[in-house]
Structures are given as structure tokens and as C-alpha cells.
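User: Please fill in residues for this 277-position structure.
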């Protein structure tokens, strides 16, 4: 007889994720700013602050949950300190500094994203924007919050503009979509430079939607749970499910998404399909 799996201690996971996200903000906002800005093999920027935050978060997870796996944007310095992500039940997915280009330039908009997956499904998420003091928190089936206050996505008002979070990438499909949307009446596009923060803003109703064609699991794992628990929808840009995440796959594979209220989602998917055809 197969025994049922134990219920995960989600509130313990959430408390640790919230603490680590706040500590990440203190590291990011320490006097002196970013140091040793360099480029990775994909030409994206990385700073010593990215690495410092990730080291801090991963060390804490290893100390408390040595049987958990991790999946993080930067190189994991001590992979043997964590369980194998292809086998472990729980996997922590971390973007230590989402918005590195902003951070390196001195533009005050950057965040830390921490999610916990249970067999590939997000169950806990925290996104902390380190300049506004916004901490978005969520547990599966427990609702989404911004600084401990419940949040909900907003349905579009046909008499008002739609605010849509967009990416910085310039791949062919993204360029075609943005060229179409920028010309549409009442479509107002916003690129804040942090995918995770965009998803928090969708969950809280500040943005009506957000889209990205070139992002990774660590960009969206926490934010997608925020959106769904706040009453919204998040799929790939063509309406297909994003989860469960395949943790045996290369984490550098793109995880495109479209997030919005349920009332707006079908309309945006239809527009993207028309543009892509």
C-alpha cells in the first residue's frame, strides 16, 4: 500500500521566503551600489550583488532544508549542498535580482523572486520590489497579498485604458506584438524592467496584463501563483498551460507567458495568435 504524501508546511516555507526576500533588499540597497558589473554568455548583465543575494538565499535554504532542491538564475556555487532537483519533491526557484540592468544603471526598480514548487507546481511565492517596499506573498489556495493585504486582479473597463506590462527583449514575435499593440487604441504599454514585479502588479490590479516571450522559470514561478491566487489567468502567449514545470529540463529554456484577468485573457490570446499567424 502506498502511503499518501504528507501535507507541506507551506506557512513555514512562506515565512522563510519572506525573510530572505527582505534580506535580499538590504543587500541590494547597501551603500555603494552594484560592483563588478559584467556580461554573461547570453549577453545579459550580472553584478556582484546578484551573486551575493543568491549565495545568501541558497545558504539559508541548505541550512534549513538540505533535502530540498534549488533552481536559480546565477551559477549555484555549492550544488552538493542541495538535493537533486530532478528527484526532490520540493524545489526553491530563485531570481536574486530581477531587473539587474535597472540596478546597474541606478534606476530604482528591481526585485527578488522566490518560489517553492511541489512536484513542479508553485505552492509558495514571494516577490519583493526593493524600492517601493512592496512584498507580494502567496500560498496555494490561500490567496495573494501585498504587504499583508489581500489583492485581486482587475477586470478591464471598456471606457478606460489598458495598462500592459511588456518585456525589453526584441525577438521577432515580441517586436511584432508590441508594434501591433502600441498602435491600438486604449493599449498603454509599460516596461518596468522586472518580470516578477510586472506579475505582482497584475495580481494587485495595477497592471491589467503582462506579457513576455523570452523569460525563464525563475522570472515567473512566484509571480504566476500570485496572479492565479488573485483571480487571474496566466498561460503561455497562446493559451497553453505553463505547469507543472519540468525540472528535468534545461532551466534556461524560455518560459513565455501572458497574464491578465480572466475577462481580458481570451482577447489578448486571440490577438497574439492573429499576429503570430
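Assistant: Residues filled in for all 277 positions:
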Amino acid at each position: 500500500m502506498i502511503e499518501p504524501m504528507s501535507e507541506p508546511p507551506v506557512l513555514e516555507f512562506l515565512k522563510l521566503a519572506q525573510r530572505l526576500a527582505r534580506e535580499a533588499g538590504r543587500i541590494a540597497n547597501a551603500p555603494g551600489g552594484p560592483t563588478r558589473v559584467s556580461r554573461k554568455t547570453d549577453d545579459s548583465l550580472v553584478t556582484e550583488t546578484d551573486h551575493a543575494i543568491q549565495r545568501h538565499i541558497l545558504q539559508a535554504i541548505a541550512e534549513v532544508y538540505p533535502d530540498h532542491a534549488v533552481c536559480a538564475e546565477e551559477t549555484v556555487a555549492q550544488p552538493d549542498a542541495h538535493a537533486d532537483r530532478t528527484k526532490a519533491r520540493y524545489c526553491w526557484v530563485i531570481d536574486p535580482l530581477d531587473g539587474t540592468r535597472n540596478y546597474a544603471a541606478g534606476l530604482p526598480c528591481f526585485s527578488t523572486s522566490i518560489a517553492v514548487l511541489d512536484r513542479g507546481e508553485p505552492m509558495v511565492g514571494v516577490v519583493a520590489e526593493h524600492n517601493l517596499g512592496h512584498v507580494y506573498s502567496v500560498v496555494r489556495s490561500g490567496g495573494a497579498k501585498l504587504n499583508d493585504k489581500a489583492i485581486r486582479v482587475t477586470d478591464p473597463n471598456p471606457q478606460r485604458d489598458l495598462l500592459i506590462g511588456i518585456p525589453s527583449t526584441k525577438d521577432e514575435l515580441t517586436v511584432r506584438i508590441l508594434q501591433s499593440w502600441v498602435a491600438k487604441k486604449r493599449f498603454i504599454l509599460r516596461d518596468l524592467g522586472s518580470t516578477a514585479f510586472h506579475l505582482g502588479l497584475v495580481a494587485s490590479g495595477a497592471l491589467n496584463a503582462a506579457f513576455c516571450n523570452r523569460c525563464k522559470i525563475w522570472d515567473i514561478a512566484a509571480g504566476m501563483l500570485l496572479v492565479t491566487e488573485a483571480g487571474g489567468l496566466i498561460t503561455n502567449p497562446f493559451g497553453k498551460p505553463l505547469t507543472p514545470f519540468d525540472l528535468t529540463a534545461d532551466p534556461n529554456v524560455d518560459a513565455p507567458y501572458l497574464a491578465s484577468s480572466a475577462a481580458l485573457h481570451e482577447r489578448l490570446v486571440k490577438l497574439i495568435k492573429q499576429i503570430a499567424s
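For context: The CA atoms of residues 163 and 206 lie 8 Å apart.
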